[in-house]
Write a structure and sequence with these properties.
With 79 residues, the chain is α+β, with helices and mostly antiparallel strands. It contains 3 helices and 2 strands; from the N terminus they run H-H-H-E-E. Strand 1 and strand 2 form a beta hairpin. The two termini are 34 Å apart.
C-alpha cells in the first residue's frame, strides 16, 4: 500500500497534516485499491510498554496466508 501512496504524492509538497491525509485518501490503483484515511487528533502518550502477558491476551486471529503478517485484532468493549 505504501508504494502506491508515495507514488500518488510524488512531487507534491507535504505542507501540512491535512494535505498528507488528503493525498493518502486519494490513493487508488487500477485493480480497485482505495484507502480510507482520516486525521486522528487524539493524544497518545509515548513510553507505554505492553507486557508479554498483555500481548498474549490480545484477541488475534491469523489469516490463512502468512498469519504472522496478516491477522485481525478483534476490539473489545472498554471496561
Amino acid at each position: 500500500m505504501f508504494s502506491f501512496i508515495t507514488t500518488n504524492w510524488r512531487g507534491k509538497p507535504l505542507t501540512s497534516y491535512q494535505v498528507i491525509v488528503e493525498l493518502v485518501a486519494g490513493t487508488t490503483t487500477e485493480t480497485g485499491l482505495r484507502i480510507l484515511a482520516e486525521w486522528d487528533r487524539g493524544y497518545y502518550p509515548t513510553g507505554i510498554e505492553v507486557t508479554d502477558v498483555e500481548l498474549a491476551a490480545l484477541p488475534l486471529s491469523g489469516h490463512d496466508w502468512h498469519p504472522d503478517w496478516n491477522y485481525n485484532l478483534t476490539p473489545s468493549k472498554p471496561k
